[in-house]
Write a structure and sequence with these properties.
Blueprint (H helix, E strand, L loop, with lengths): L6 H4 L3 E3 L1 H10 L4 H10 L5 E3 L3 H4 L20 E2 L2 H9 L5 E5 L15 E2 L13 H8 L9 E5 L5 H11 L5 E3 L3 H12 L1
């Protein structure tokens, strides 16, 4: 299997072998059936394309290869500070606030009522069985009928986490792009 291209060729036009596409798809935890469909749509010969490494190394890059048969994922609902503040003061049983930062980052604090499912160290958490999830995290796995609202430190990981949740069957997803940094800044200014 080929490896991701060297730094010197990342920003220029380049040839990409099927193995690189599959490797990148697996890197972003796309399911096996989706990887197979992706490979069927790719040419058997290397394909020349005009995308820089940053675009290529993102999960949403693969969305353009997704057909209606494999299902499409509705976009997340975007939340702002006021929405999250209301949710933290008056929890809703149908909405779960998910902090995707690593446990060490939680020492800075967290938004009240949020659960922690780290994106980097446990990207497959939402694909685990209910028993395995509860054993690993110590709380019940969120049901797919609930809306998961993701936040992180600065708004990048939460976007990837909500996309990944869509791949695992969570259609009701939200994102707080301001994330922890916005929360802290606004909480300080309110005092």
């Amino acid at each position: 299997m080929a490896t991701i291209l060297s730094r010197s060729t990342r920003s220029s036009l380049r040839y990409v072998e099927r193995g690189v596409w599959l490797q990148a798809a697996r890197r972003y935890s796309l399911n096996g059936a989706f990887c197979k469909k992706l490979l069927q749509k790719l040419p058997s010969q290397p394909e020349r394309f005009q995308h820089n490494a940053r675009q290529f190394n993102r999960p949403n890059y693969f969305r353009r290869f997704q057909s209606s048969e494999s299902g499409s994922f509705p976009g997340p609902k975007i939340y702002n500070y006021d929405d999250i503040k209301k949710l933290s003061l008056n929890p809703d049983d149908d909405k779960i606030l998910v902090d995707v930062r690593e446990p060490a980052e939680l020492e800075q604090g967290f938004i009240p009522t949020a659960i922690n499912i780290p994106y980097k160290s446990a990207p497959h958490a939402l694909s685990l069985s209910e028993e395995a999830f509860e054993e690993q995290f110590g709380f019940q796995k969120p049901g797919k009928e609930k809306e998961l609202i993701f936040y992180c430190l600065g708004g990048v990981r939460c976007n990837y986490a909500q996309e990944l949740a869509g791949h695992f069957g969570y259609d009701k997803r939200g994102s707080y792009p301001g994330s922890w940094e916005d929360w802290v800044q606004r909480e300080i200014s309110r005092k």
